[in-house]
Design goal:
By secondary structure, the chain is of the alpha+beta class. The protein has a domain of 146 residues: Hypothetical upf0131 protein ytfp. 30% of the residues lie in helices and 28% in strands. The protein contains eight helices and nine strands. A three-stranded antiparallel sheet has the order 1-5-2. The chain has a two-stranded antiparallel ribbon with strand order 3-4. This is glutathione-specific gamma-glutamylcyclotransferase. It comes from Coemansia thaxteri. GO terms for molecular function: glutathione specific gamma-glutamylcyclotransferase activity. Its EC number is 4.3.2.7. Pfam families: ChaC.
């Protein structure tokens, strides 16, 4: 089920609110495996983007797509300014940088259970943040959802891989396997799911990484 834009803002938490506690709807933004493996009950969904951050395979995976001895690589979100500092040869414009994904509204009454489940699923270095979701990546449009929960592996977390090139990242993905399957499967299924939503949802970085793995 896809919620209409004019209805999607209703029930969102106030800034940095906790919707699983205050009785309002809990929206979760998926930009990685959640897009193709939604293992929690959903009432509605909105395809859209968040602005000012890039999706990057710079988070090590020790528990899903790799192991402790040979970690894989999974997605995190890198703020544009931080990306530019890490990769000065490929600067990110904060006004045009965007990451496409899907926001899911958790089934009413299941918020606390789903939040605990997702905390466990994303336990390898991820923390909670809140973002606005837009229907397009233009700078002038208003968000269709505000304060949507998202899991992010910030650069200070112990599983952050650092400034890894596409070539190095692709080599890791090509060989890594974990309890959830091969690392290759992760990126292939993510790209497939994004293209099913919108043809240009796979950005240049993700497309280049897909080709190299």
């Amino acid at each position: 089920m896809t919620v209409a834009v004019e209805d999607s803002v209703e029930g969102c938490a106030s800034a940095l609110g906790t919707p699983w506690e205050n009785g309002r709807a809990l929206w979760v933004f998926g930009y990685g495996s959640i897009i193709y493996r939604v293992d929690f009950p959903v009432e509605a969904q909105v395809f859209g983007c968040i602005r000012g951050r890039r999706r990057a395979f710079l988070q090590k995976s020790h528990d899903h797509r790799g192991t402790t001895s040979q970690p894989g690589r999974v997605c995190t979100l890198i703020p544009a300014a931080e990306w530019t500092a890490m990769f000065p040869g490929d600067p990110a414009d904060p006004d045009t940088t965007a990451c496409w994904g899907v926001a899911y509204r958790v089934k009413s009454g299941m918020e606390q259970q789903v939040k605990a489940q997702l905390d466990h699923r994303e336990k390898d270095g991820y923390t909670v943040d809140f973002v606005s979701v837009y229907s397009d990546d233009g700078a002038d449009s208003a968000p269709v959802l505000r304060n949507v929960l998202v899991y992010v592996g910030v650069s200070s977390n112990p599983s952050f891989a650092g400034a890894s090139s596409i070539e190095e990242t692709a080599r890791v993905i090509a060989r890594a396997v974990g309890p959830s399957g091969t690392n290759r499967e992760y990126i292939y299924r993510l790209c497939q799911a994004l293209r099913a939503q919108r043809g240009d949802a796979v950005d240049e970085y993700l497309g280049a990484l897909e080709k190299r793995t």
